[in-house]
């Protein structure tokens, strides 16, 4: 079934480690054998993205942090790791002036950019093309941290406004971000609740993430420094600003909170911040589990772009004259590129979204010699089509095997550890978890009020019928599907009636739902009515 993987991929489906190696090996083999020849033949790497290397397939999931200066990017990393890292500088002024790859290492230390791009085990070799101006502002910070065993984090320089900042960097900042965006698993844009303006350079940086919209998450940081009314206005202003620079019909996910280890300044939204932090942590923790799927998804996107690129280049070659007037024809073809796009869409039934940006393509074509382009080679296109139609499906099967045969991969350590278990875990002691450690039945404190209601519902032999219980339960205005679940949980002896304790339990569960908490799928031991607990223990 997986013969296309070659000998090294065959027979490796016995344990979880082998499955991971097979998936990684399969991706690498697919790229090297089927996609890379097409890319090289039509000079894809000169126009779009450098060739992928072994480290690109084997590296850990990466998270890229981007934001204007003093939005808390470096502090956010410090918060996740719960320790300092080499090269870390924090302050209200623009402090981080370099790209810092924070990665796992047995010994704490840093590796400068020029040394980093010649290390075949690191996925940064192709950054060499950005030159010394960039490499002098690039480093790897290594430290033995539990979080970094699962993910790597890329800290970026704080973005300022003004043309001067773009010029003084000495390298193409947006292109560097674009390079990272293609390879990372998550892009986190950080905003300060007091500085929502999106500068020209920040807008340009966000546009560099075009095509990677599914990776973008937004964090509204330092939200504890404003009250609830101000926070609503700040959130609305942020969404309006983002709508102008992120051109997608979907609303981008924004996490609100204060991501550092100091006390909250305004505590009225503490619960909201806790819930938002847990949602963000869950998103980051899912990255190792979804890493293989993300790499597969990126390979598919790359293959579709490479195919379109081949059609464009071969079309330009076909239209060029064999002898005279080459330069004039080249200018004409570049100016008519939008029309060529439309023509190729019709000829090959390609979606407009698969085509590269017209302006950037025109800029790159200006410096090319069209006579060195190649005509269409159907065998190369067929190989990629076969990969997309057949091999990808086989690889998806392998990924599903990986998910079923391995324990769930999660990010552990640092800030993730403190909120997973114990009394400070999300929802601990709240909702249906309230009273889990109390000796007294948690429903008992409200039971006198529930008993008064119970006796107005005409109990017979200490129980009320389902019809009478329904009359009271529907006053909550909860939908029947929810009330039906509450009934199943409350009718503990399943006799179709409720005694006073079961009725009190039903009212307690209704209260939990009305307060915005979820209901349990099974009744936890601490909520079982006291008079029914003997039955529960005997059943065990």
UniProtKB/TrEMBL annotation:
Gene Ontology BP, a term: endocytosis
UniProt domain EH: residue ranges: 446-534
Cellular component terms (Gene Ontology): endosome membrane; plasma membrane
Matching InterPro entries: DUF5600 (IPR040990), Dynamin_N (IPR045063), EF-hand-dom_pair (IPR011992), EF_Hand_1_Ca_BS (IPR018247), EF_hand_dom (IPR002048), EH_dom (IPR000261), EHD_N (IPR031692), G_DYNAMIN_dom (IPR030381)
Localization (cell): Cell membrane; Endosome membrane
Stretches assigned to the EF-hand domain: 478-513
Membrane topology field: Peripheral membrane protein
Molecular function GO terms recorded: ATP binding; calcium ion binding; GTP binding
Domain (Dynamin-type G) ranges: 57-288
Keywords: ATP-binding, Calcium, Cell membrane, Endosome, Membrane, Metal-binding, Nucleotide-binding, Phosphoprotein
Protein name: EH domain-containing protein 4
Native organism: Microcaecilia unicolor
């Amino acid at each position: 079934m997986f013969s296309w993987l070659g000998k090294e991929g065959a027979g490796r489906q016995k344990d979880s480690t082998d499955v991971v190696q097979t998936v990684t090996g399969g991706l690498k083999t697919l790229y090297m054998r089927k996609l890379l020849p097409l890319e090289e033949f039509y000079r894809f790497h000169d126009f779009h993205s450098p060739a992928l290397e072994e480290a690109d397939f084997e590296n850990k999931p990466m998270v890229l942090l981007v934001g204007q200066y003093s939005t808390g990017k470096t502090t956010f990393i410090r918060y996740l790791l719960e320790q300092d890292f080499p090269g870390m500088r924090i302050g209200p002024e623009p402090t981080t002036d370099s790209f810092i790859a924070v990665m796992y290492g047995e010994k704490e230390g840093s590796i400068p950019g020029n040394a980093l791009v010649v290390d075949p085990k690191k996925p940064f070799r192709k950054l060499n093309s950005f030159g010394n101006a960039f490499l002098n502002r690039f480093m790897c910070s290594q430290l033995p941290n539990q979080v970094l065993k699962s993910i790597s984090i890329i800290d970026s320089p704080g973005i300022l406004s003004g043309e001067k900042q773009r010029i003084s960097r000495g390298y193409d900042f947006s292109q560097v971000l674009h390079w990272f965006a293609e390879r990372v698993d998550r892009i986190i844009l950080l905003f300060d609740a007091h500085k929502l303006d999106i500068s020209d350079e920040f807008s340009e940086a966000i546009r560099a993430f075009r095509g990677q919209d599914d990776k973008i998450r937004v964090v509204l940081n330092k939200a504890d420094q404003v009250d609830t009314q101000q926070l609503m206005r700040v959130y609305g202003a942020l969404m309006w600003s983002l709508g102008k620079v992120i051109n997608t019909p979907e609303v981008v996910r924004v996490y609100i909170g204060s991501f550092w280890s100091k006390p909250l300044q305004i505590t009225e939204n503490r619960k909201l911040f806790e819930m938002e932090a847990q949602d963000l942590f869950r998103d980051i923790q899912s990255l190792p589990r979804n890493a293989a799927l993300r790499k597969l998804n990126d390979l598919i996107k790359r293959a579709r772009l490479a195919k379109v690129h081949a059609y464009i280049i071969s079309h330009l070659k076909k239209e060029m004259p064999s002898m005279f007037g080459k330069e004039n024809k080249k200018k004409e073809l570049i100016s008519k590129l939008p029309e060529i796009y439309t023509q190729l869409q019709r000829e090959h039934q390609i979606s407009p979204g698969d085509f590269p940006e017209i302006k950037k393509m025109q800029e790159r074509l200006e410096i090319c010699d069209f006579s060195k382009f190649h005509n269409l080679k159907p065998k190369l296109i067929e190989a990629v089509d076969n990969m997309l139609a057949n091999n990808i499906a086989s690889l998806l099967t392998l990924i599903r095997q990986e998910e079923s045969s391995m324990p769930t991969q999660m990010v552990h350590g640092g800030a993730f550890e403190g909120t997973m278990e114990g009394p400070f875990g999300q929802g601990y002691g709240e909702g249906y978890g309230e009273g889990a450690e109390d000796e007294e039945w948690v429903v008992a404190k409200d039971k006198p009020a529930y008993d008064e209601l119970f006796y107005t519902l005409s109990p017979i032999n200490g129980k009320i019928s389902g019809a009478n219980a329904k009359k009271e339960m529907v006053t909550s205005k909860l939908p029947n599907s929810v009330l039906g679940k509450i009934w199943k949980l409350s009718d503990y002896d399943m006799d179709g009636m409720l005694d006073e304790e079961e009725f009190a339990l039903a009212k307690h569960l209704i209260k939990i739902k009305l307060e915005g908490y979820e209901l349990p799928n099974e009744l936890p031991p601490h909520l079982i009515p006291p008079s029914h607990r003997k039955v529960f223990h005997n059943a065990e």
